[in-house]
Automatic annotation (TrEMBL):
InterPro entries: ExbB/TolQ_transport, MotA_ExbB_proton_chnl. It is a multi-pass membrane protein. GO terms for cellular component: plasma membrane. Belongs to the exbB/tolQ family. PANTHER family: PROTEIN TOLQ (PTHR30625), TOL-PAL SYSTEM PROTEIN TOLQ (PTHR30625:SF3). Keywords: Cell membrane, Membrane, Protein transport, Transmembrane, Transmembrane helix, Transport. This is Outer membrane transport energization protein ExbB. Residues 95-202 form the MotA/TolQ/ExbB proton channel domain. GO terms for biological process: protein import. It comes from Kushneria sinocarnis. Residues 222-242 are annotated as: Disordered. The chain crosses the membrane at residues 6-31, 122-145, 165-190.
Length: 242
């Protein structure tokens, strides 16, 4: 026989759990929406300022002053180019690693770090979307069991006796589905946005690597150094993105 002290608490507990899941879903939607929107704006402003820079030095200054995922990738790349990514204790050993290989690895690692930051909270949405229908179904099954036990104890099997408790129990399944659908939709939306952001970060990392390769993995180009050595002003550069 079912525990009479626990049984009346099961269905309400299931409903409150589902309501809490719904609140979490909409909170994640708001937080992640603001995060992706802010990151999009920051990256757009950074790309414009970075590719208008006339040298890698100026590009480094832009990266240091700007927020956003792409600025973080650029800072990681400049750390390799300037050698600041190597601690003094490991400098002799790390210098044996080709700088281009270090740069490629550093850019890849930074992309993964930024990806983990952007996908934070999506696992919660996936869990809510996949478990809510089953939690609601559990509440329904328990409610039906309670109704059947009551019918067996009282001996009354009329429609008015059966329909009320079972109809009340079915509410849990409906609420579970209502909670799961938005969670799945929000998860799919932000997963698509995440893939788009990772693709853009990959494109920027490839462009940054090519730019560093053209400058022989040095912040100051040989042209500027030669002009400075002869006391002549450096020629006016076109923007790096030109």
């Amino acid at each position: 026989m079912m525990n009479s002290s626990i049984t009346p608490m099961i269905v309400p507990a299931v409903l409150w759990t589902l309501i809490a899941f719904s609140v979490v879903t909409w909170a994640v939607l708001l937080i992640k929406g603001l995060q992706f929107a802010r990151n999009r704006t920051e990256n757009k402003r950074f790309r414009k300022a970075f590719w208008e820079a006339r040298s890698l030095e100026e590009g480094e200054s832009v990266a240091e002053q700007r927020p956003g995922t792409m600025a973080s990738i650029a800072r990681a790349g400049f750390a390799v180019i300037t050698g600041s990514d190597i601690s003094p204790d490991n400098r002799e050993l790390a210098q044996r690693i080709n700088r281009s290989d270090r740069l490629e690895r550093s850019l890849r690692q930074q992309i993964q770090r930024e990806r983990r930051s952007l996908e934070g909270g999506l696992a919660i949405l996936a869990s809510i979307g996949s478990t809510s229908p089953f939690i609601g179904l559990f509440g329904t099954v328990w409610g039906i069991m309670e109704a059947l036990v009551t019918i067996g104890e009282t001996g009354e099997a009329g429609l008015d006796t059966v329909a009320g408790p079972i109809g009340h129990a079915l509410i849990a399944t409906g609420v579970g589905i209502a909670v799961a659908v938005p969670a799945v939709l929000v998860y799919n939306y932000f997963t698509r946005r995440l893939k788009l952001n990772v693709s853009l970060m990959d494109d920027f990392a490839h462009d940054f690597y090519s730019l560093a390769q053209q400058n022989e993995f040095h912040v100051r180009s040989s042209v500027d150094t030669g002009h400075a050595a002869h006391g002549n002003p450096a020629p006016r550069h076109q923007p790096m993105g030109a």
